[in-house]
Design brief:
globular, alpha/beta, 14 helices, 3 domains, eight-stranded mixed beta sheet, 513 residues, Rossmann fold, 25% strand, GMP Synthetase, Chain A, domain 3, single chain
């Protein structure tokens, strides 16, 4: 289910930058609803959102490359403010008669800007501040009507034509390294005329109306996983159509220790119509001897859908399936935005069979994780459920590196329970955003008592993040890590060594698979 929002909207045209999602996220932090469209979107597709502003994202190409992503000149005919960032600024300059040249060296990382004139975007206090650069080409001369407002050394890094409402930045204001970036974006949104009053909670009425219009008098089944995303999606749909929704909560055998029973009780407490399904044996059979992570995800996704379709046939008039797919799932799974890169598939997106008998309703598809939590609070969900840390749809299957078996699941469940208990007792969330154990496919020699052991290795993963798009490894106290290690080795038979993952995202991902 998708459609054009009635909110004041910022349209971001994606040219393949790794930071495009951050532009969207930063805009929302500033109270501006944003949507990412492919750079090749037609003028009609853009105009359908009635945008108050447009941003051209950065990208990895040179504007002079063969088949380089281009700019539809009809966009200028919309006569709304437009901001080009990095590659977007170069496209803007090239299309309006300016000159773009390759740099003698690629400028990547921190740089210092100096104001070259009065600017509508850059406040005087930003003079001499740090910004983040990532480019090879640069604008050598600006088009007629534009003025240069900032430089980094000899490089033009900001230009504008206020009469036409056109602006360009060579640096990336959306990343935290650009110290005045948030203020610069805020000034652009003010120039666009945004009221900057959007919040995730403001989507409730719009989504309720959209769901009602889409579903009509049909019934729907909701794919509950136990996590925040599906719980909020189910509650939102329940707000719209009530008893027309049947929530299916599957015990895959891949959940955390005691999670199935605890979550089922929580759903019943908030009044959702939940049908529990015990299916661990089915998932174990399908996953036997499977080691490739993408294959695991697709097997689990296909089995989920098979169960949903089977159970949906028992609910008369079922035509729709509700899923808690989020924006990062879509971005990372499918190259929906032109040249963007597929990182991995998610069971909600890439693992679906090609011929699915139910139509999808994904009311959270355009939201980030922290926005979903905000929406859940608006809907009145208990704080414990809203603040539940993220858990992947494929469950512990992708936290067991290598083959999955009931025995390895039990080992990981016990180790993971210790990790969560100790961190929850010592660290206040959301300081640490996500934390869990991973079972590795290697064994190591150890000594326990007077005997030699040869058992499995457990990795502990803990990260700090706001939405999962980027993350830093959590600097947990050494004494906490020592206690976690000691308890796992002592209490979990089958593990004799514990290691701590100190990889950020990027370059790594939060999950190991």
């Amino acid at each position: 289910m998708s459609g054009v929002t009635s909110q004041e909207t910022l349209v971001i045209l994606d040219y393949g930058s790794q930071y495009t999602q951050l532009i969207a996220r930063k805009a929302r932090e500033l109270g501006v609803y944003s949507i990412i469209l492919p750079f090749r979107a037609t003028t009609e597709e853009i105009a359908a959102y009635d945008p108050k502003g447009i941003v051209l994202s950065g990208g990895p190409n040179s504007v002079y490359e063969k088949d380089a992503p281009g700019l539809n000149p009809d966009v200028f005919g919309l006569e709304i403010p437009l901001l080009g960032v990095c590659y977007g600024m170069q496209l803007l300059a090239l299309n309006l008669g300016g000159k773009v040249e390759p740099g003698t060296t690629r400028e990547y990382g921190n740089a210092t800007i100096s104001l070259a004139g009065e600017s509508s975007l850059i406040d005087a206090k930003a003079d001499g501040s740090t910004v983040w650069m990532s480019h090879g080409d640069h604008v050598a001369s600006v088009p007629d009507g534009f003025v240069v407002t900032a430089k980094s050394g000899d490089i033009i890094c900001a230009m504008e034509d206020t009469a036409l409402g056109l602006y360009g930045l060579q640096f990336h204001p959306e990343v935290a390294h650009s110290l005045e970036g948030k203020n610069i974006l805020g000034r652009f949104f003010d120039l666009c005329g945004f009221h900057r009053d959007w919040s995730a909670g403001s989507l409730v009425d719009e989504q309720v109306a959209r769901i009602q219009a889409t579903v009509g008098d049909a019934n729907v089944v909701c794919a509950l996983s136990g996590g925040v995303d599906s719980s909020v999606a189910a509650t939102l749909v329940d707000r719209a159509i009530g008893s027309q929704q049947t929530c299916i909560f599957v015990d895959t055998g891949l959940l955390r220790q005691n999670e199935y029973e605890e979550v089922l009780a929580a759903y019943k407490a908030i009044g959702l119509n939940v049908k529990p399904i015990r299916a661990a044996a089915d998932f174990y059979a399908k996953l036997k001897d499977v080691e490739d992570p993408e294959t695991k995800r697709k097997i689990i996704g296909a089995e989920f859908i098979a169960i949903f379709e089977r159970e949906a046939k028992k609910v008369k008039g079922t035509k729709f399936l509700v899923q808690g797919t989020l924006y990062p799932d879509v971005i990372e799974s499918v190259s929906v935005n032109g040249p963007s890169v597929t990182i991995k598939s998610h069971h909600n997106v890439g693992g679906l069979p090609e011929k699915m008998q139910l139509k999808l309703i994904e009311p959270l598809r355009e939201l980030f994780k922290d926005e979903v939590r905000e929406l859940g609070a608006t809907l009145g969900l208990p704080e414990k459920m809203v603040q539940r840390q993220p858990f992947p749809g494929p469950g512990l299957a992708i936290r067991i590196i290598g083959s999955v078996s009931p025995e390895r699941i039990e080992i990981l469940q016990k180790a993971d329970a210790i990790v969560r208990e100790e961190i929850e007792n010592h660290v206040v969330r959301p300081e640490v955003w996500q934390f869990f154990a991973v079972l590795l496919p290697i064994k190591s020699v150890g000594v326990m008592g007077d005997g030699r052991t040869y058992e499995q290795v457990c990795a502990v993963r803990a990260v700090s993040s706001s939405d999962g798009m980027t993350a830093d490894w959590a600097k947990l106290p050494h004494e906490l890590l020592a206690k976690i290690s000691s308890r796992i080795v002592s209490e979990v038979r089958g593990i004799n060594r514990v290691v701590y993952d100190i990889t950020s995202k990027p370059p790594g991902t939060i999950e190991w698979e």
